[in-house]
Amino acid sequence: MTQEQWIEHIETVSGLTRPEGENGCQPADWHSAYDLHKYTDPGCTICKERRATKRAVKAAKNKRMMYSDLGLIRVKGALGGIYYE
To answer: How far is CA 24 from CA 8, 28, 38, 46, 74, in A?
Structure first.
């Protein structure tokens, strides 16, 4: 689930447009609409997918940072695999 897909989901659920540009809603209204959606539908599959994606991206970022702190370099192998040397 990409961020763009998730934002479109929140726009359709809340009826508000994202708080960007001059046609967008106020950020406080956007956050309150999201909080209301979380409260009224805690089992929303689309929001669960987004949270899983965010966790996976954060874990991958931490792993890459840990390897780089150890002095290892991320390398793509000849067959497409990724390893550190």
So the answer is: 13, 12, 21, 22, 41
Is 35 strand, coil or helix? helix
Q: Is the dihedral of CA 20, 53, 60, 31 positive or negative?
A: positive
Cβ burial, residue 30 (10 Å; 0-12/13-18/19+): buried
3-state secondary structure of 52: helix
pLDDT tens across 55-81, in order?
999 999 999 999 999 999 999 999 999
pTM over 0.85: no
Two structure tokens written together for 54: 């965010």
Domain boundaries, the chain: 3-84
